[in-house]
Each structure stands twice: as structure tokens, then as C-alpha cells.
């Protein structure tokens, strides 16, 4: 695994342990070249998902994009990081077990909304309100960009 700080490919695993209720393995890594420390996660990938947008464009499913949008919706909400990771893994697992490698972007949005609704109402409303506009944009990057300005910088007093 290449060091994200200096690019050295010869990094060492210092510690491995189960995470997210044994859904993932968390590895602490150390780079002897720059003394940088970073974490990687190993997860089961049941299938390579392809996201199909409304305009028919296809792109590989990107867990990081999904995670970004969910983290933005949950910004400053009292939800533990571990819980968020579990939630994202749960969503991915659902997508993977739907029986088809092609997943409509709409379907992903719906599943995220359903999941957020159970975890945090504020995050759900944030996500859902932007998601409605997003139906037209139909692009996760645009969606994430739109989601951002709707969230106040400071918590409500
Ligand atoms: Zn390094």
C-alpha cells in the first residue's frame, strides 16, 4: 500500500483488527520513509456495481462518493463515526444483494433516504431536500456540491 504522504510503496502494517462488527478489517499502517501513519479498511466486495444515471450514463459505483454525501448530511449531528461506517456498509451490502450489477442512481438515493430516516431526522431532511433538486442534476458530485451550502456553518443556537 502506497504511503499517501510521500508515495513510498514499502509501508508496514502495525496493527490489524476487526471493525464495524467484523464486516471490515482495519489496518494501521506505518511508513518508514516519512514516519507517516494511516489507516486502511479491507471489506468484502460481492460484486462490482455500476451506477446507471437517469440520462443513461454508466459509471463504476464509488463508495467514497456515497460516504461523502452521507457525512455531509450528518455534519455536526450526534451520530458516532462507527455508526456511520456501519450504515454505509449496510447500504452497500443492500445494493450488492439486489441481484444486478447495474443500479439506478435513483435507487441509491432512495435507500440512503430510508436509512437516514431511521438514524437522524435532521440529516434525513437535509439529504431529502437536496435530493429533490438533484433528480434533475442526476450527478453525485453536483449533488454533494448542492448539499453543502444548505448546512449552516455553526449549530443552531
Ligand atoms: Zn511516507
UniProtKB/TrEMBL annotation:
Occurrences of domain ATP-cone (ranges): 49-139
Record has Zinc-finger as a keyword: yes
Annotated zinc fingers (unnamed), start-end: 3-34
GO-annotated molecular function: ATP binding; DNA binding; zinc ion binding
Cofactor: Zn(2+)
Keywords: ATP-binding, DNA-binding, Metal-binding, Nucleotide-binding, Repressor, Transcription, Transcription regulation, Zinc, Zinc-finger
One Gene Ontology biological process: negative regulation of DNA-templated transcription
Database matches in InterPro entries: ATP-cone_dom (IPR005144), NrdR-like_N (IPR055173), RNR_NrdR-like (IPR003796)
Pfam families in UniProt: ATP-cone, Zn_ribbon_NrdR
Coiled coil (residue ranges): none
Keyword Transport: no
Chain segments annotated as transmembrane: none
Stated role: Negatively regulates transcription of bacterial ribonucleotide reductase nrd genes and operons by binding to NrdR-boxes.
Record-stated family: Belongs to the NrdR family.
HAMAP family linked to this entry: NrdR
The protein's name in its UniProt record: Transcriptional repressor NrdR
Species per Swiss-Prot/TrEMBL record: Oceanomicrobium pacificus
Gene: nrdR
Amino acid at each position: 500500500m502506497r504511503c499517501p504522504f510521500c508515495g513510498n510503496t514499502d509501508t508496514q502494517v502495525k496493527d490489524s483488527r476487526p471493525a464495524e462488527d467484523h464486516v471490515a478489517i482495519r489496518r494501521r499502517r506505518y511508513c518508514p520513509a516519512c514516519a507517516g501513519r494511516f489507516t486502511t479498511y479491507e471489506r468484502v466486495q460481492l460484486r462490482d456495481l455500476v451506477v446507471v444515471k437517469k440520462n443513461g450514463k454508466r459509471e463504476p459505483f464509488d463508495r467514497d462518493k456515497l460516504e461523502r454525501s452521507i457525512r455531509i448530511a450528518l455534519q455536526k449531528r450526534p451520530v458516532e463515526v462507527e455508526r456511520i461506517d456501519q450504515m454505509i456498509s449496510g447500504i452497500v451490502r443492500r445494493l450488492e444483494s439486489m441481484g444486478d450489477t447495474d443500479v439506478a442512481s435513483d435507487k441509491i438515493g432512495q435507500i440512503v433516504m430510508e436509512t437516514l430516516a431511521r438514524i437522524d431526522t435532521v440529516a434525513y431532511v437535509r439529504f431529502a431536500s437536496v435530493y429533490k433538486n438533484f433528480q434533475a442534476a442526476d450527478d453525485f458530485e453536483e449533488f454533494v456540491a448542492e448539499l453543502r451550502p444548505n448546512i449552516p456553518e455553526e449549530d443552531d443556537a
